[in-house]
Write a structure and sequence with these properties.
single chain; alpha/beta; Rossmann fold; five-stranded parallel sheet; three-stranded antiparallel sheet; 9 helices; 15% strand; binds adenosine monophosphate
């Protein structure tokens, strides 16, 4: 099963993807996680991407498409993938269509996790992540990860100014993908402004898992 998760930054794509992976052993690909790792390791890609990420802008399509082509050819993707944070532009969506058709794998669904912008601002400015295991929590978790005891930190791009810019970028560049996938009859939409476990029950039901 190949799924695209759609939704604004902070809508809960990462959280829902983690739950799907835990329960159904699907392969989770987050372009944001790949880029943050590249920035941390100061690779060529990381050096090129950092400025865009810090400003809340999109990393150029050609860099993202190249990295996804390489990632989709890894053997762990063959049973199906959950794409989280890709595609983010129509150019990327068209590139994904050709990647999947070259690999002979269909896209099953584009699942939109729908949350209003003001709820997102509140959520993202209080979001915290674990440095060790990637657990996504909030200021409520304090400084210690409830899963592994690692250190919780705030992402550089989760400050209010950058969050608002990321939402503008989402509305302009990524929201048009909702119509793109609706036109292909692949769009599923769920209300993401609820407890993550309630949202997950809906995700599972919508995907027919
Ligand atoms: P995320 O963790 O998905 O919120 O991504 C964090 C940041 O990485 C974004 O604000 C962008 O700067 C960059 N990024 C992640 N995925 C993409 C993508 N598919 N296209 C362009 N930039 C991306």
């Amino acid at each position: 099963m190949n799924i695209v998760l759609l939704g604004a930054p902070g809508a809960g794509k990462g959280t829902q993807a983690a739950k799907l992976v835990e329960q159904y052993k699907l392969c989770h690909i987050s372009t944001g996680d790949i880029l943050r790792e590249a920035v941390k390791n100061q690779t060529e890609l990381g050096v090129k991407a950092k400025g865009f990420m810090d400003a809340g802008e999109l990393v150029p399509d050609d860099l993202i498409i190249d990295l996804m082509k390489e990632r989709m050819e890894q053997p762990d993707t063959s049973e199906g993938v959950i794409l989280d944070g890709f595609p983010r532009t129509t150019t990327q969506a068209v590139a994904l269509d050709s990647m999947l058709s070259e690999l002979g794998r269909p896209l099953d669904s584009a699942l939109l996790i729908d949350v209003e912008n003001e709820a997102i601002v509140k959520r993202l400015t209080s979001r915290r992540m674990c440095r060790e295991c990637g657990y996504i929590g909030s200021t409520k978790d304090g400084s210690t990860c409830p899963k592994c005891g690692g250190e919780m930190f705030q992402r550089d791009d989760d400050n209010e100014e950058t969050v608002r810019n990321r939402l503008d970028v989402y509305d302009k560049s990524t929201a048009p993908l909702i119509d793109y996938y609706r036109g292909k009859d692949l769009l599923l939409s769920i209300d993401g402004d609820r407890d993550p476990d309630v949202v997950f029950a809906d995700v599972v039901a919508s995907l027919g898992l």
